[in-house]
Design a protein that fits this description.
With 284 residues, this protein is α+β, with helices and mostly antiparallel strands. The chain contains seven helices and 13 strands. Among the domains are: 39 residues, no CATH class; 70 residues, Sporulation related repeat (Alpha-Beta Plaits, 2-Layer Sandwich); 74 residues, Alpha-Beta Plaits (2-Layer Sandwich), CATH 3.30.70. It is 36% helix and 29% strand. The longest helix is centred in the N-terminal third of the chain and has 26 residues. 13% of the residues are buried.
């Protein structure tokens, strides 16, 4: 195997089998080193290993941002996921302040603090149809008295207020001046009396003509006018006469009540204000 060469050099001699053995040993050592580095040191990693490690970690759940109070979420019109041809209408929702979930928006009533006259008329008409009881505030012969009563009822906030006119016999008080057999003489007396009072008039009675200084609903008014004419120098004896005549009367009613006790409470309140109101039933 070893031969002597000139110059004391040694020649290494071997067959092909020995070389292959050396290369095989080197290859095994290399593979073993690579396997050790790959499996035990973690220096070399693959994309699959990286993904595996990432997937092993627990997934982070992102919480939705809390919805702002008062904000509204408006869904746009689109198509249904199950049926693309079916359109979906927009939906207006409001978020819940505690859970952040959207709830359907509720309609808000529009409150008008200053309704129009037409709106007030509708409310009063509705009340009139529902109320079973009302109040008769008074029967007024004089138009001014009815207007004053209406104004006082409005101030007392008793609604609705209604008025109707009828003709009925009522006692009246006339200031009698004189009686004449001829109309000419009665007319002359009337012209003279008109200078003192514009309420003077003539009434024919059979073949006679009576002259009056005025006719009054209240006896005190008639007496007051009589005394005034006497101070003005009227000749003769002025007499206050009570008669029954049919005259137009304005009846003022107010309020609409479902229960009679509620109506009686308002009656007591109006009596303190000077009204002589009474309860009536609308069903009769």
């Amino acid at each position: 195997m070893f031969g002597n060469l000139p110059g004391n050099e040694v020649e290494i001699r071997g067959g092909p089998g020995s070389i292959r053995t050396v290369l095989l040993v080197v290859l095994l050592v290399t593979v073993a080193s690579a396997a050790y580095i790959y499996f035990f040191t973690g220096v070399v990693t693959t994309h699959e290993g990286k993904n595996f490690r990432q997937s092993a970690q627990p997934a982070m759940v992102k919480k939705p941002l809390p919805a702002r109070l008062g904000a509204e979420t408006v869904g746009r019109a689109g198509t249904s996921p199950g049926n693309p041809s079916q359109s979906v209408a927009p939906v207006v929702t409001k978020p819940n302040a505690e859970t952040g979930e959207a709830k359907k928006a509720k309609p808000v009533a529009d409150v008008n603090m200053n309704p129009s006259p037409k709106a007030r008329a509708k409310v009063r008409t509705a009340c009139k149809s529902k109320g079973g009881y009302a109040l008769i505030v008074g029967e007024f012969v004089l138009g001014n008295d009815a207007k004053r009563a209406e104004a006082r009822l409005k101030k007392a906030a008793v609604f609705p207020i209604s008025k109707r006119s009828i003709t009925k016999p009522e006692p009246m008080h006339r200031v009698f001046v004189a009686e004449f057999g001829e109309r000419k003489n009665a007319t002359t007396e009337l012209e003279s009396l008109k200078k003192l009072t514009p309420d003077a008039f003539i009434l024919p009675l059979k073949n006679r003509y009576q002259v009056f200084a005025g006719s009054y609903y209240r006896k005190g008014q008639a007496e007051k006018e009589r005394d005034r004419l006497c101070r003005k120098g009227m000749k003769g004896k002025l007499i206050v006469q009570k008669v029954i005549v049919r005259i137009p009367v304005t009846i003022v009613t107010a309020g609409n009540f479902t229960d009679k006790p509620d109506a009686l409470k308002v009656v007591h309140r109006l009596r303190e204000a000077g009204f002589r109101a009474r309860v009536i039933s609308r069903n009769k």
